[in-house]
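Repro:
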Amino acid sequence: MVGQSSGRKPLVGVLALQGDYAAHKASLQEAGAEVLEVRSGEDLAKVQAMVIPGGESTVMASLMERFGFLEEFRHRIQAGMPTFGTCAGLILLAARVEKWNRPSLAVLDIDLRRNAYGTQVDSFRVPITTTIPGISRLEAVFIRAPKILSVGPEVEVLAFHEQDPILVRQGSVLGASFHPELVPGAMVHRWFIQGLPA
């Protein structure tokens, strides 16, 4: 989804205000990207794409607002900057989140329910299939995961768990209920930065 040219590595930002951003940073580096930890609008302005990790969605939203770059982040995404959110990151990207009234990015046309797969002790791993070229099968790790209740007409579902969408894309925005950064191979991150065709 992020184009590379002339052998140069893309510069991808990871929102590093809270959550497990280190695991995403490692996956992106394994996938071949240069990575910048983003904590301000100045950092955001330097990157070609962004990843929003899992963690506490309320805390991340509040800190982006406090540090003054929530609106700038939204505008960059709306202008086409590739952005990938996992778990809490998906919550921040979702246009509608049940029983959650916080400022957020609201750029992905989905309805979402927070913590719908249970608490920390209910975490689980499950094999899934995807429609991403070259990633027919993948292990998905769910930790206090949000559930996608419905998707808008422009949202493409790339993977399901049972009957529920868990990996979706709308334009340059990619969202996952699960944690692809916690499995070996960085397969989803590699696809995200290389811009493989759907």
